[in-house]
Design brief:
The structure is a homodimer of 353-residue chains. The first copy, chain A, is an alpha/beta fold and 353 residues long. The first copy, chain A, is built from twelve helices and twelve strands. In chain A, 41% of the residues lie in helices and 14% in strands. In chain A, strands 2-1-3-4-5-11 form a six-stranded parallel β-sheet, sandwiched between helices. The first copy, chain A, has a six-stranded mixed β-sheet with strand order 7-6-8-9-10-12, sandwiched between helices. The first copy, chain A, is elongated and about 90 Å long. Chain A starts with 11 loop residues before the first helix and ends in an 11-residue tail after the last strand. Chains A and B meet through helix 4, helix 5, strand 2, helix 6 and helix 11 of A and helix 4, helix 5, strand 2, helix 6 and helix 11 of B. Chain A binds a DNA duplex (30 and 30 nucleotides) through helix 2 and helix 4.
DNA sequence: TTTTCTTATGAGACCGGTCTCAAATGCGAA
DNA sequence: TTCGCATTTGAGACCGGTCTCATAAGAAAA
């Protein structure tokens, strides 16, 4: 690999020479530390302008040990949920003069590990992670810099965490469905389950997934629905097989009369699949989804959603992390934000008699 | 600001001491360069593992001059167009072991300048920019590292550029509308215009905006529509005033019978506003938009769109840039990708008699 | 055995900043 | 005038890597 001829950049020494002062003095002016006389300050600034000096942030980070950037590892930037949260994070970071290095894990633990390794090697001052799998958290535990979790809590990891009240949200949403007489309700999530699930919800470590399932099951139980666990469908992420899975679900004997979707991407897939199968919402199937994505209000019918404060989620987690960077050493906080349900037109009475 | 006690990291010297070799030799093994005997290699690797050595990428970049990361400045990550393009960029970058530092300009030149300054200070190896305004490109011209433009070309800047055939796309889309008898057609864009526009399309420097307008006007002219320029509406980005502007447009005497929207965010706003005003698509108003966003196929009616190869756009521009980083010095390329129109149900005959 | 060439290793400069420490300067007080 | 103290400046170490260059060791050739 040929190396492009490194542009000879203007350094502190160059400016110092031009201004006729020592390197240390020029550095003081340029770096904004120490004390310098007004005369010298002006001379150095003048020289810097003349030479078009640009500081090398890398060299600065070398000595200070702080890089002025934080790493953010999310599952999928394309998912509007994450892009909005990232927006919240960047906005807060910008205000503190910190910038954001973004990495996609694709919800894959290995990719996540790798991303974290790279970010750490780049000496990020802190990390915000949306852990892909809760089973493997060893790589998170050994992170030396401040870490904060976004949207997903890990019981085994005592760090700042911002989530929403998933359990209550799922509970309330499912209740809306049971109240309409639905008894075959499916919960469809993009999350993949490591190992067997059946009846051992407590073994799911990812808080978001577990809490939602617990809320879902609780609501089913209230309504006297047995074996709700069997109606939980994992892994309906973006793939052909996932789409096929949904199709199969919709065409099966035990076709659900209502579906609760874990995010807007899954919900959109479901919406399309439902239409392709010739069913009508809410006559044949009722649908509720997490996340008030922009499209949910313009479909026919508009979709009833669980509205999560996504931007605030990102904003808060960034604020928490930045506070840490400034030396705050209070015990880790776990903030749970409330959700609201926006009832639109996608829920109707059960079509079963 | 208190400084957190810097975690004493394990350095090459530490590993060298542990392995009983010189710093230079340990560095050779750890850095994967030079020649080392097998015996020593194993010993160093062993020592590194024992000490849990993590390389400091910053220090490495210091000497090599290359940081292994590229900067990407887009208008708005939240816009699905950009998130998809960014996805394309990151995927390519990951394959080359390069990572991406993302910055939002919010379509504001000052923010863009600032972002570029910071990224440059962080010694990014290259930059991908979606220039917010084409009037001010001085800050782009003086960039010393490889630069590539995404989605928007700048005539005054000879660098690798990937765009779509905006002019033809707008031409074809507008023809669909004129063919249905529409004569009051509005083009609505989020772009803001610096200075006065009226009749001087050629003065708009941002290629995307200019080309689309030229295509739009050409199609209007073909159909014998005069003064199409007056139906071009700028600045309908995300703001209250923009929404009000759309409302005003729809309620005016000269209400357009068809609208062409510059991106899916604008289109969604339009869609909602049209509904709020009590109009029906396509009976009262026809609508076509750039970008096949996910929601456009699930509305009632589904929206006719100009499908841009967004992911490919990001992928290509990243490939071009990375080729540059590897020393390629061919003259700059300007790649124009073709678009296709997906005809759905949002276009009907003009309601005017 | 001596010479010549590889190959492996070590010493130390270097990248571009920060920062410590000592010296120089200036100024008011004794 | 001289001393003390605060302020300003310069010299140079340092951060954690890379990389050049010289040397040492070993192998092949004479």
């Amino acid at each position: 690999m040929k190396r492009p001829p490194k542009a000879p950049s203007v350094t502190v020494s160059d400016v110092a020479r031009e201004a006729g002062v020592s390197k240390a003095t020029a550095a003081r002016v340029l770096g904004g530390y120490g004390t310098v006389s007004e005369t010298v300050r002006v001379a150095v600034l003048e020289a810097a302008r003349a030479l078009d000096y640009r500081p090398n942030e890398l060299a600065r980070s070398m000595t200070t040990g702080r890089s002025g950037s934080i790493g953010v590892v999310v599952g999928d930037i394309e998912n509007p949920f994450f892009s909005l949260a990232v927006r919240g994070i960047s906005d807060v970071a910008r205000l503190s003069g910190i910038n954001v290095i973004l990495a996609n894990s694709g919800e894959d633990v290995e990719a996540e590990k790798n991303a974290i390794r790279v970010l750490l090697a780049k000496q990020v001052d802190g990390l915000i992670v949306t852990p892909a799998q809760a089973g493997e958290i060893a790589h998170l535990k050994e992170i030396a810099c401040p870490l904060a979790l976004l949207d997903r809590a890990l019981p085994g990891l005592a760090v700042d965490t911002v989530t929403v009240d998933d359990r209550n949200a799922a509970l309330q949403a499912t209740r809306i469905l049971t109240r309409e007489g639905h008894r075959r309700i499916a919960y469809v999530t993009a999350a993949v389950l490591s190992g067997d699930f059946r009846g051992a919800a407590s073994r799911i470590n990812t808080s978001t997934v577990r809490e939602r399932i617990l809320g879902f099951i609780e609501a089913c139980r209230e309504a006297g629905i047995e074996g709700a666990e069997r109606n939980i469908h994992f892994g309906s992420g973006r793939s052909e097989s996932a789409h096929a899975m949904v199709q199969r679900l919709l065409k099966s004997q035990e076709r659900p009369t209502a579906i609760l979707a874990s995010d807007s991407v899954v919900a959109l897939d479901l919406f399309k699949a439902i239409r392709e199968c010739g069913f009508s919402i809410p006559r044949d199937i009722s649908l509720i989804t997490f996340h008030d994505a922009d499209w949910t209000s313009v479909t026919t019918p508009p979709i009833t959603v669980i509205d999560q404060p996504v931007y605030a989620l990102g904003k808060l987690v960034a604020e928490l992390l930045i506070r840490r960077l400034k030396g705050d050493d209070r015990p880790p906080e776990r903030i749970v934000l409330p959700t609201t349900i926006i009832e639109r037109m996608s829920v109707g009475p059960s079509s079963e008699i």
